[in-house]
Each structure stands twice: as structure tokens, then as C-alpha cells.
């Protein structure tokens, strides 16, 4: 799907925001499990210091930026389908692992896998395809996300890419955070609101990490319209998916 998204993204992505790190539980090392009613504790944490750019990584930055842009277009631009049902208050999660590409995450067990050009994997809610979870894996010359920039720098690029899309009416960052993945892997997380002519208001959760000269991008999109705002239970479920995104052991 879109590691060309990060490259395009470097050349295009959003305004200053209120930095609000996401709370995140430790990743379960089991290969598969189901989770019902995920509970995520809330706590405030200070954002980490920004990491300066490495001039030698400019080419890789362009590739990474392009990948971010492509990811936004491929996943957030998905057309919506009419739905008579909303996401249940109680959602079961199951682990999905791609050993070939080297990543793992939790996803709603009822969401179906669909093919989409440019996406490594994409899961959609059966009754509303605009609610989706997608991953893009692309080769880069970066050894870590820190070489590309700080979490806030990447968030700026991501928003710039969103705002350059003709369908985007507005985009606003809600939170930016950095966490450690398996083996101390540097993982960036973002949350933002997106108002688009394609699907209306959405809440977007994104995560990214670099390992083995590959850029891994997770994008979670869910409807968040004024008449049917994102409820607390669904938000907790989506955050659980966000925090579960990690590299597979041995990669």
C-alpha cells in the first residue's frame, strides 16, 4: 500500500498541537489471542525530546514522507458504505501476524480482510468500509525513525499531506507520542481529526516504526461525526489496536 507515502509525506505534511501522549499497555507476546472489552489506563506522560535530523538521510526522508502521503490517501480516502449498524459496545480483538513482512497487531475479529492496491494488509468493518485498519510496509534507507525526525515533525508532515488532498476540508492533530516496542524499538503514535468530503468527519490513529531498513505504517480510521461521535468503548478498542502494532520477534 504505501511506503511511497512517507516519501511524499516529507514533501507535504500540520499545525502545532496539544501534545497528549497515548496511554499504552505492554504488548502480549503470544501469537494469537482474543480480547474482550479492552481496558486502557489513562495517565499523563511527557513527550520525549526531539531527535535532530541526519543530513545524510535526506533521500530516505523523501521516501518516508511520500509513504505517509500515500498511506493517508489509500486508507483515509476509502469510500464509505451505507450502514444501519454502529460498532458494538463490546468488540473482540484477535491477533494478526505477518511473519513474511515482520509485523503484528490486534484487529477487530469481525472486520474482514480486503485487497487494496498499495496496502500490505487492510481490514474493514463489514457494514462500513470507511472504518478500517491498514498497514503499509516499504523499504527505506533509514535505520530508525529518529533519523527522519521527531514525533512532532512527522505529525506535521502527515497533516500537510492530508491538507493537500482535494477532499480534505480540515485536519487537526489531537495527540503525538513516542513509545518503545519490542526490543526497545522506537515507535511513533499520532491521533488526529479529519474532515473530508469523502466520508465526513473521521478520527485517525496512526503508528510508525523502522526496522531492518523497512518503514512500517499503521493507519486506523473511524467515523466520528457530530451526530454519531466516537464513543468511549470504541475509542478504547481502537487505542488497543494502535498500541499493539509492533515488529515480529527476530525481525
What does this protein look like?
- This protein is about 20% helix and about 35% strand.
- It is built from four helices and eleven strands.
- The strands form two sheets. A seven-stranded antiparallel β-sheet has the order 4-5-6-10-9-8-7, sandwiched between helices.
- The two termini are about 20 Å apart.
- Mean pLDDT is about 75; it is low at about 1-60 and about 80-90.
Distance between the termini: 20 Å
Note the run of SSEs as H and E: HEHEEEEEHEEEEHE
Shape: globular
- Number of helices, where a helix is a run of at least 4 consecutive DSSP H or I residues: 4
The largest β sheet comes out as: 7 strands, antiparallel
Q: Give the total of beta strands.
A: 11
Strand content: 25-35%
- Mean pLDDT figure: 76
Biggest sheet: strand arrangement: 4-5-6-10-9-8-7
Fraction of residues in H or I helices: 10-25%
Runs with pLDDT <50, length 5+?
1-59, 78-88
- Give me the secondary-structure category: alpha+beta
Gyration radius from CA atoms, angstroms: 16 Å
Features:
disordered N terminus; four-stranded antiparallel β-sheet; 251 residues; seven-stranded antiparallel β-sheet
Set out the fold topology.
Elements: H1 5-11, E1 34-36, H2 58-76, E2 92-98, E3 103-108, E4 112-114, E5 121-125, E6 128-139, H3 151-163, E7 168-180, E8 186-196, E9 200-211, E10 214-223, H4 232-244, E11 246-247
